[in-house]
Design a protein that fits this description.
single chain; about 150 residues; mainly beta; OB fold (Dihydrolipoamide Acetyltransferase, E2P); 8 strands; about 10% helix; DNA recombination; DNA damage; DNA replication
């Protein structure tokens, strides 16, 4: 069995950092990812994918990532459920990130890609420069305006 996801997109807003009762950091953000094919009007549709990051990597995401920044996320799909206030079962599908690469992007990013380390799931730098980045050749901007975001 295999549950593996690799995504490349832009953050729709700054990551939200929280801590569990035992002090573990957890960051959440949404990644906007364009589909490869166009719809009947010739436009690309965009998927908005919720991402969850834990521990030290969550703190690093909250520190280095922001709205409009490009990021590559590697992880697994998780489906969880809970009962809401009305007593209805709510299902949530999200990607639990194990590796996040900060690719920069956004206005005024300068040499962000050249100086931003890549962090693995344990929060330790795994690679340090863009020339080690497998996503470096796919730096296409995602054409999306704030009006298109669902929140």
């Amino acid at each position: 069995m295999l549950n593996r996801v690799v995504l490349l997109g832009r953050l729709t807003k700054d990551p939200e950092l929280r801590y569990t009762q035992n002090g573990t950091a957890v960051a959440t953000f949404t990644l906007a990812v364009d589909r490869r094919v166009t719809n009947q009007q010739g436009e690309r549709e965009t998927d908005f994918i919720p991402i969850v990051v834990w521990s030290k990597q969550a703190e690093l995401c909250a520190q280095y990532l922001g709205k409009g920044r490009q990021a590559a996320v590697e992880g697994r799909i998780q489906v969880r459920n809970y009962e809401n206030n009305e007593g209805r079962r709510v299902y949530v599908t999200e990607v639990v990130a194990e590796n996040v690469q900060f690719l920069g992007g956004g206005e005024g990013s300068g040499d962000f890609e050249q100086r931003t380390p890549v962090f693995s799931g344990d929060g330790k730098p795994s690679r340090n420069f863009q020339n080690d980045n497998p996503f470096a050749d796919d730096q296409r901007p995602i054409d999306i305006s704030d009006d298109d975001l669902p929140f």
